[in-house]
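hey m, so remember when u said the tokens were messed up on ur end? i reran from scratch. heres the input so u can diff it against urs
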Amino acid sequence: MIKRVLYFGYYLKQTDRKKFFKYFNHVAKTTTISKVRLFADIISSSFKYNISITDYFLFGFYNLSEGEREQYAGTGFMYEYQLKMNPKENRKILIDKLIFLREYKDFIRHGFASDAEMAAEPQIAKKLLENPSGKVVLKSSTGQCGRGIEVRSTTDFNPDSLLQRLKEMENDFVEEFVVQHPDLQALSPSALNTIRVITQITNEGTVDIVAARLRISINSPVDNMTAGNVAAFINPVTGIVEGPGVYMDITKPAETNHPITGVPIVGFQLPLWQETIEMVTKAALHNTGNRSVGWDIAITTAGPELIEGNHDWGKSLWQIPVKRGLKADLLKYL
């Protein structure tokens, strides 16, 4: 019980108050649950199922039976699971994007460089600014959820002004913009639409594909769900999207077609799918210190490539698109 109290204190501290009241009022208006009962259910569910306050809304607990609630992997469970599978001493390779890009260079096609490298050798920056995409991406090596990322035209900079802009934005490295496959470009051209594939190294040393999700930008320069975009379920065997694009915002309906381009989301076939699964399986075995990783993958005409790996891959991106709890899929690995 003491542990659950500590968890609840953390959940309270981390809760976005504005978002909480938006969701709380939405549920109060669209269901028959009284506000008093809703408050009580949120608190009791957090303790009983070890979920965050935000999890309660994202998973739709207000509409679920006790048995259905039990199936969800909430914030607390995921923290403990990923701590066991990806010990803290092994995580730096995934947390620091520059370390990741260098360690997994065999699975990466695009160029990149740190601010220190470009300051020491301006020719490196010049080469990045001459890349064929005509764009560069300015990032922080420890940034999360797409925050602080800038996608800019290469004509906006010279080597000196590029370094100056990195400093202004508190970013520390630059990547070539990855040009996605034409099929994905037609679906959503505003950003690079990545695939999240979750792998698990089994006790026998083999690799299981836990899940695959397509992240789709909605008039946004990034594809993260937290930035207002959608994610959809991909059949991991066929590479076909078999569900609508869903938002993290519970007040928004799911999208069967892209709301701007009109391209169908349901039934969308991911190109080069077999090559994608083969690549991510090899990547999972490249460094086995982290056994459960969420890989972000770009698919280009030249083939798939890694963008980053996540030791704390999202419980929301994983479960919300299928509208059911998937905790049982992980319990077999413990």
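this time it looks ok to me. The beta strands are 112-114, 135-139, 150-153, 173-176, 195-201, 207-216, 230-233, 292-300, 303-310. if urs says something different then somethings off w ur setup not the seq
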